[in-house]
Every structure is written in C-alpha cells, then in structure tokens.
Write a structure and sequence with these properties.
- The chain has helices at residues 22-35, 54-68, 83-95, 113-126, 137-140, 146-153, 168-177, 192-198, 212-223, 227-244, 251-259, 277-289, and strands spanning 5-9, 39-41, 75-77, 100-104, 131-135, 158-163, 183-186, 202-205.
- The protein has 296 residues and is an alpha/beta fold.
- It has a single domain, classed as Alpha-Beta Barrel (TIM Barrel).
- It has an 8-stranded parallel β-sheet.
- Helix 4 links the parallel strand 4 (100-104) and strand 5 (131-135).
- The radius of gyration is 18 Å and the shape is globular.
Length: 296
C-alpha cells in the first residue's frame, strides 16, 4: 500500500436514538470515494472512537471496508491506552479487511518514551498489518520523541505516522531522522501544504469530508508543481479549517456536514455536545466563505 495524498478522518454518524447509523456511513463513504479521496480512516478521534463499544468499533470498520471494496485503502483506528486492547482491536480490524491500522499514543497513562516504544513494538510484533503511529499530545497528554519514532520506524510493519503536534520543527526532525520510505502524514489540516514542503506525503484530513474538491485540488497542485495554486488553496481553506476546530472535534465538522445535507442530524455522544448557537452561525458563515452552500 502506497501512502500518499488525502485520507479522510471519518465521522461516525449516529441516529437520533444514539445508535450507529450505518446507512448514512455507507452513503458518506460512497460520496467521498466518488469524489476521489485516496483513502478512508474510520474510528479515529473524529470518529468518536472513545465512545464506541468494542462491537460498534469493529462493525464501523467492517462497513467502511465493505463500501470501499478495494477501491481505496481503509486505515482503521485501533489504538488504546491499554496495549492488550490495542492488540485485540488491531487483530480484529485486520480480520475485518482493513488495509492498515492507525494507532494513537496511549492516552491518560502518560507512559515514558520506553513505554511508548514497547507499546507500539508489541502491536507490530503481534499483528501482520501495516501500522501508522498517531502523535497528538493535545489529546493524549504525551508526545513521542523524534528518537522514539525513529526507533519504531525500523520495524517493518510500522510504515508511517500521523503527525499532529502542530510543530513543523518537530516534524522536520522526524522526517530527517527516519528512513525515506517512512511516511509522514499531516494530522492538522492547516499544515498540509507546509508539511508537503518539508517532505510530508499527505494528510489525514477532517476538512476533506466537508470540501473534498478543495483538499484534492491542493494535493494535485502540489503534485503538479503548481505552487501558486497550492498556496491559493491553502489560504482559501484556512478560515474553514479554523471553524472546524472552533469547538472540540468532531462537533463542528458534524454540524457542517449536517448543514450541507451529508448527515441527517449532527448527533454526538456524551460527553461531547452540539456546538452552541453562536458557533453554529460561524460554521455556516465559513461554509459560505469557502464557496459551499448549506441546506440547513
């Protein structure tokens, strides 16, 4: 599997009664694949994985794999703060047909760098599936060091990292230290173009499910060497990206998808709640500014 381009960090749609809405999930995946995205990433942070039961988690992965049917790769979120649980989820995702696993750094525990290394190395030793590290200290309260990432990059099943520290200096250090075939993907939509410029290979994107055309346009402009167009799209997207994180993700993106008619409701699971009225108005304004037309 070649990791390159725009991968969508999928939301998990819920019914008004709180169950996973697999019909809407199927429609969303079909639309995104038809739009030209390079891959789908279910059950990550944006997919509210922390609120899904074990059964729901694997069922969501199965649904996305079934819709993708080999047309695009499916990178399943299977991380946990318990190594044994991450092993189990990764094994079941592999059995469900996922093409790779996205593994968040263990949250809340605050392991040492050696603990982080052993956590990810254990999963890679156990499961024969390409694995992508996910470094997002703003969510987990712990950050992998560039040296720990370099050590893990030596494992033949650990193929890349979703880099979401927001620190280009750190990302530069990771790219410099790791092998050329170790893929660094942006975990912050707003840093997609800067990360391309220092050697990144793409993005796992929240905003791509709101406006895939613009994100794919940025990808194509970069690939074609049209840096002026890439910069234009980068700046064009910034207000929308800011609006998508005006409250805790995925509240704003679900609101935007509801406004655009891609979700029948903006339901989240507690403790997450719908963005407040003021922020909903700002989200709607950002959609219009990006050239999109909310239906609601």
């Amino acid at each position: 599997m070649q990791l390159d381009g725009v991968y969508v960090a999928l939301v998990t749609p819920f019914t008004e009664q709180g169950a996973v809405d697999h019909d809407t999930l199927r429609a969303l995946c079909t639309w995104l694949i038809d739009s030209g995205v390079d891959g789908l990433v279910p059950c990550g942070t944006t997919g509210e994985s922390a609120t899904l039961s074990h059964t729901e988690h694997i069922d969501v992965i199965r649904t996305v794999v079934d819709v993708a049917s080999g047309r695009v790769p499916v990178i399943a979120g299977t991380g946990s703060n318990a190594t044994a649980e991450a092993v189990r989820l990764t094994r079941e995702a592999a059995d469900a047909g996922a093409d790779a696993a996205l593994l968040i750094a263990p949250y809340y525990n605050k392991p040492t760098q050696e603990g982080l290394y052993r956590h990810f190395a254990t999963i890679a030793d156990e499961i024969d599936l390409p694995q992508i590290l996910y470094n997002i200290p703003g969510r987990t309260a712990v950050s992998m060091s560039a040296e720990t990432i370099r050590r893990l990059a030596e494992h033949d099943r650990i193929v890349g990292i979703k880099e979401a520290t927001g620190d280009l200096g750190f990302a530069t250090d990771v790219i410099r230290r790791c092998p050329d075939d170790f893929v660094v993907l942006a975990g912050d939509d707003g840093l997609t173009l800067p990360l391309y410029a220092i050697g990144g290979r793409g993005v796992i994107s929240v905003v791509a499910q709101v406006c895939p055309v613009a994100m794919l346009g940025l990808r194509d402009a970069w690939r074609n060497g049209d840096f002026r167009e890439a910069r234009r799209l980068h700046h064009h997207l910034q207000p929308l990206i800011a609006a998508m994180f005006i409250e805790t993700n995925p509240g704003p993106v679900k609101e935007a998808m509801y406004m655009l008619g891609h979700l029948p409701n903006p339901e989240l699971r507690l403790p997450l709640v719908r963005p407040d009225v003021v922020h909903r108005s700002l989200i709607r304004d950002a959609l219009f500014a990006a050239g999109l037309e909310p239906e609601r």
